[in-house]
Design brief:
heterotetramer; A mainly alpha; B alpha/beta; C mainly alpha; D alpha/beta; B: Rossmann fold; 2 domains; four-stranded antiparallel β-sheet; D: alpha/beta; Rossmann fold; five-stranded parallel β-sheet; four-stranded parallel β-sheet; 13 helices; globular
Chain lengths: ~290, ~260, ~300, ~375
Amino acid sequence: MDYLASAGVLIALYVMLAASYNLIIGYGGLNTIAHPIFFAIGAYTASLLGINTGWPAVICILAGIGVAVVASVALAITTLRISGDYLLIASLGFQLGLLQAVNNVEFTGGPSGLSNIPLTLAGPYRSWLYLLICTLLAAVVVWLVWRSMVGPFGRAVRAMRDDELACAALGRGLFAMKVVIFAFGCGVAGLAGGLYAYYFQYISPEQFNVAQSATILTMVVLGGIGTIWGPVVGAFVLVALPQAITFLQLPSSLVGPLQGLIFTSLVIVFLFLRPYGLVGKRMAGAAH
Amino acid sequence: MTQEILRLENISKRFGGIVVADNISLTLHAGDVLGLIGPNGAGKTTLFNLISGLFRPDAGRIFLQGELLTGPLYRRARAGVARTWQHMRLFRTLTVLENMMVAPRDYPGESMLQSMAGAGSVRRAEKSARDRAMHLLERMALAHIADTIVVDLPFGQQKLIGLARALMNDGRCLLLDEPMAGVEDSNYETMQRIVRDEAAAGRAVCVVEHNVSFIKDLCTEAVFMSFGRILQRGSVDDLTRSRELTELYFGIADA
Amino acid sequence: MTDPVILLQILWTGIAMSSYFVLFTVAFALTLKVEKLWNFAQAGLMGIAFYTMFYLLNAAHWPVWLGVAAAIVMTSAVTVAVEIWAIAVLRKRHSSGLIFFIFTLIFSQFVAFLLTLMFGTEPETIFPSVMSPVRIVGGIAVSDWDLSAVGITLAMLIGLYLLIRYTRDGQFMLAVSDNEKLAEIYGISARRAYILSGIVSALMICAGIWLYGTRAGVTPDVPIGLILTAVIATLIGGLGRVFSAAIAAVGLALLQSFSILFISSKWQTLLLYGVLFFALLLFPRGIPAWRVKRIRPSPQTVAAAAAPQGGS
Amino acid sequence: MNVNVTRRLALSLPAALLARGAFAQQKEPVRFGALMPTTGPEAGYGLDFVKTYEMAVKDINDNGGVSGRPLEMIVLDTQAKPELAINAANKLIDVDKVPVIITAWSSVVKAVAPIANRNAVLELNMGANSPDIANLGEYVYTVFPLAEVDVTALANYTKGKLGKSRAAVLYINNDTGIGGAKIYRDVFTKAGGEVVAFEGYDPKSTDFTGVLLKARVGNPDVVHIHGLSELPQVIAQMRQLGMQQQVTSYSAGYNPKLLAQLGPAAEGLIVTSLAPTASNNPNVAKLLDLWKQVGRAPNGLPYLQYAWDSTVVVAQLYDWIGKNNLPPTGENLRKALLTIGTFDLPMTGKLVVTDDHRVNKPVYLYVVKNGQFSLLDTIS
């Protein structure tokens, strides 16, 4: 069942994205929605290197992570001084602007995207190998998030989310912490991007737009913002459910909007009745 | 002569056209518990914000234990300025113990890598912070709520935790913004006792309070402020006996 | 391209096209000012307003004025419902800005999906034809649509100005936007002001989408793109300055129009995001020259608003 | 031979075969997958494609199926978005085990291509015309002429027959627009014409004044607009600016909605179509009859003719491997495609599939006259 493996790869990639995004927004309280752009940066860097240099996939993916981290630090240094709602809008401007640029220049393939990404791990077990690698990496990412959030660093980050001023007045240097979690989270997104590009062998700008931001945000909110397992559950539900719905033999003109309606109404219901998500406990996050 | 902890030299600050600190000079020594009183808008909390680094003064200098105090909020906290807030500003999703353990000056967790690696030095620092926090809570007879999320606590206890968190910073300068407002009964007594003990242990404490009777219960000395200026410094009794100040205070406060 | 007739033509169509941006921006900026809310749900309201008009005029064959009136009623009703049953609840809970953002954005998406289910995704226009009669004035083409767009927008802006300046409810709205707590102390209902600002915004949205939908095709996805321009103009205009935001919207539209002289038009959108991004970097709290001067809420304005007024 | 196969499979009415048709239903069906946008902005076309496949499949099965076995179609939604298409393609291949997938929309065709190549599943494009589709790999073929076919014909016609020498080219800044506009520019220049303006606009634009004025400054005698659903608005604004030049577009402009939106302003517009109409191919009348039963006019009729014919191609491929007793794999279907090579199709005429992954077709040019599209010329 290659299909299951392929859905599994997607779940694992989204676990990475949601867990790293949750680190930034759920634990760190940094209201950015530009996560997909770092996913895109990782994917485009890895693909372009893979296509143009023929370097091994691992190197290209690592380079993708590197560029995502550098870009995120650059964005962080310039915009993290802006707080709250402004950061949200600034990140949106960064995301849409960069995507527009990718769309308009030639070497990224423009709106047609990149379709000749080299085939890696060819063979009958390709999907299963990818599933294994992605699952392991996703587990490592979740473990790293957990490990960093249970210790003193995590405590300071959560304190910062709850009250920046009080946290600074206790002697914690917020800016460095913000940059670190932002860079880490975006690096993970870059990793997911590289893997995505190599597995699916096709990327285009529209895969990284605001709809993608909304998807990842929905995973985090639905699962439980500011919790370890929330994003994992959210990613699983949001990838698996639509797949399950396609097995329901509904008329296909209904399926798309119906899925959309189900998910958006779920989010709305959760926001009001269970703001702490599927796995969160009361007050477990910034959701309230 | 006891040791000088905090010295303000000719501090001035304006916001737009409003003068909130007008050439203020003030010295605090170890063991002092100095009350700041004055009508609303006199610049009491602003003075705290100037000392702790939330605002930069337009003119004047601040010294902590003889050294020039500069830099942003967090540097001054590390230098030894601990403060509480009128509205407490507790970390609402953290437990009491976690709230307190954010505060030590030699915090081990600012590096993500170090924190994750959980190296020996980190573990030792964490243990010592935990021990100190538990000891403080025991002194407040609050050890049983160490693992409670702070928002679930009654108001008076939250105020005490605000103080306890500030005390985790073992610097010598302690600024308390309305510590007694809304605190009653046994919590009131605890607050009083802890503040006095800390002063006796060598801290210089400065308290902003509205209610003069709190100041009487807490402070050895007081300063009367109005429109960003220090009008008079003296014993609490002296200040409250001054007809001029009383009129100024209540006259404006009632307006 | 530097022929004055061409420049004037770009100027004129740029101004005409900016009309709906202005209306959406004013709606967005007003809600932000009065309710302190980044109301992305307004994208959903645009969708509702458009498809109500589209359905009533094309399928139900209602007279134009009745269809438009029904769309206004419908949009206002949804605005008020969202205010009472959702926004007020979140506000009461002291929810974080992020939660408001998620709710309003997801609400718009929900509406978009619902409209897709009901009306499909073919681009639709309010009237079957997108042509409008043209006259040439001094070498410049001026269409009826251009004139009605400028006229409607000016009328709406003047109406808003009069409302704020000369009615008690308008003054209450200002007072609440200045300082909600203080206003309540003076007996002004913040809730009433919120609902009023919501309804005024709904009116602006209906007018804006009418102009848009008589000129270009609308699909359920279109409004979410439109709201972004409104956000950008609001930020550039300086927060809390509704009329500055309107001017910023015109400015941005003209910047995009005139950029064609220097760059290929495919870069126009990027220009918009670029302006947004750099404006935020340089002025993280809005453009300073236009920033509201009062740092503290002034009791006088609130008191003045609360004081009984003879004439109104 | 080929002709006979086609006619029997697709359209023939001999009563004798009806019995076989009934018999066919009891055998194990042969399957193909279709990835179409049944929701999202492109669903207007996607749904009509699906409807047409259903008609074609029913027609084939009513006439005996494929080598006695019924043809079955599995449709999955893509919203014309690559990431959804990838998932859907995986499901078609792994769960539904189809060896052949029909796709359209160039981003979808491209996204599915690596999956088709990896899994040795045949991917047939029936609607996208992006020129890069010819280079997507050994399992990706098109039954639809790529942009060079109609745009080349149009550009040459404009220069040669219409005698226009200064063209302004405006295009929507996406895959389709960029690809088509570049071909037009190159062909028109090569034919001796001059391209005086070459401007892309953002797909989200609603105001085209700037681009149009830029075009006007070049003083063109023909304006080629390579756009999609915003095409009527571009033309409307152009006419409102007083620009009276000849306008041309490609097959996306061959759409009745455009006539309604533009009214008299559409007069003189030249568009292309890659399929014959009922007047020069009687089979098309049958398709129109079937659509009359649906109760509304179909969107993009020429594309629907290709939709029908792509179904017929699939049926013929299965017929071939059935006759040669080969297992129904993507590899064998590909072999069938290349071996048969020439298909005579009911709705769009002769199709020649070759190793270079391109096909050639006659191009029909239409001009809007008295509010209707009327045939201007046929270029083969």
